[in-house]
Amino acid sequence: MIPVKNCIEADVLVVGGGIGGLMAAIAAARSGCKNVVLMEKMHSRRSGSGATGNDHFNCYIPAYHGEDIRPVFRETMQSLVGSCKDPSLMYKFLKKSFELVQLWDEWGVNMRPTGDWECKGHALPGKPRAFLKYDGSDQKKVLVREAKKLGVRFYNHHPVVELARMDGRIAGALAVDISKEQPEFQPVRAKTVLLATGLTHRLYLTAPTPAYMFNTGHCPNCAGGQGLGWRVGARMVNMEFPYTHAGPKYFARCGKATWIGVYRYQDGTPVGPFTDHSDTDYGDVTSDIWNSVFEDVMATGTGPAYMDCSDASDKQMDYMRWAMKGEGLTSLLTYMADNGIDPQKHAVEFMRYEPILHGRGLDVSDEGETSVPGLFAAGDMVGNGGCGIALAAYLGWEGGHAAALQAAGQEFRPAETCENITARMALLSSFMERPEGADWKDANMAVQQIMSDYAPAGPRKVRSARLLEAGLNNLRLLRQKALAQMGATCSHTLMRAAEVLDLMDCGEALLCAALARKESRGNHIRADFPFTNPLLADQFLTVGLDEDGQVKTAWRPVRQAIMD
After folding, report:
1. Buried b (16+ CB within 10 A) or exposed e, 305-341
2. For residues 472 and 251, what is the distance between their CA atoms, to the nearest angstrom?
3. In angstroms, rounded to a whole number, what is the distance separating the alpha carbons of residues 81 and 331?
4. Could you report the per-residue pLDDT of 215-253, keeping only the tens digit for each?
5. Is residue 350 within 8 Å of residue 207, measured between CB atoms?
6. pTM for this predicted structure
């Protein structure tokens, strides 16, 4: 049995040290909570998709955009962050966004690097620009510093592997201390818990290099929060619509709005109708509007498609390289410099990346609470309002305040005695007792193969009841084999094995949701239901486990915004 450390207590336990988690911890502490604990799988100072930077913060600034919020709200709902979101939550976020921008600026994140508020990128020509251009290269260490000032206790290298639910509400969690070669269990009693573990990669075969599962556009986070919520019965939403991003071919890096050039075919013809010249204000929004463009042009033989910055001035290129550094694309800049790649002289081929759960996951209220009392969520693992840096900051902020307020009226309960906690201890210990067992990589690649074959993302690939049912059966068989055969040799491989189990939970939720959505919509294309049902236009499909552990799906109305 893996050794068990003494149980610790937290009024508010934050799981994940990314943008959402740090904002939640700061908010909870500022609300007067004196016992805030943050647990992070890696190290909070440089973890998550915002680890080395970001340069676009979705927001509404009255002095910049004007007194009418509605045009910015409309643009936000039509942008990358707006899809699959509750308008009510998005509207409240926009109303709060400038307050958060000002806080970050006050704390030391460079939110106006040109001297004033300036929005650029992810916008159609002539339309309001809703993404503040900022330098987020030091955002993580600034937020960590602010949290420490307020007394937040950090447990780095402590992934949470299970939640405790007692008498219908959250009571705590089980973490694993992986700071040394041999793991130790760390039980936690918590009055409230906020999950902020980021988006999910490694569920599908990696598009640029299928043999290398960590060549991903974002931080290769792995389903932790979604899996934790799923197993304690939290409702999930929009799981049937995995998101696909795009960027340089083979060298997977997001940040396509940071490029200022034009997407062109080999003969120089623009791929989209939105621009024909390099533009630091707008860039080329084609890939935001036509999400599958890079896959489509290859499938039809009209591609490849390239990012062309050959008409950009030296001043524009200096700006783009500066913005890439703020976005955290330092490895891409280094690679291009080392290999003599100059975007003014060399076109860079782009491609569509693999499906990920980015802004797909737990269904939350406008204040960030899930369907399980005492359990909150923030960031890219939220399914109805968590995609991107700004929304992670908002839900972390609101959720942290709400979690602290709720914790004040609760007592600690013996979470470490929960049956699912002790069962997870026994399961993970069995992996360590089986050092010669099957490798976690084999199980992970099998998950990727099943999901890619049986639940692919459209529009070029289709789903059907036959495919989805076969995929679900194969995934469940794989789970049985993994539980019986997977082994681990140290803290690192145990962490990866636990991640694979979370991925299986996400895969099951996605497959079940896709089966229940009997229509075609977005990148969910059903060969047996090829039409889009207008009766479902204002409905979200939820999926979760009932008290007996059975998968249940349901429809709920999209929450509409109430304008001031």
Report:
1. bbbbbeebeeebbebbeebbbbbbbeebbeebeeeee
2. 32
3. 25
4. 998 888 787 899 999 999 999 999 999 999 999 999 999
5. no
6. 0.96
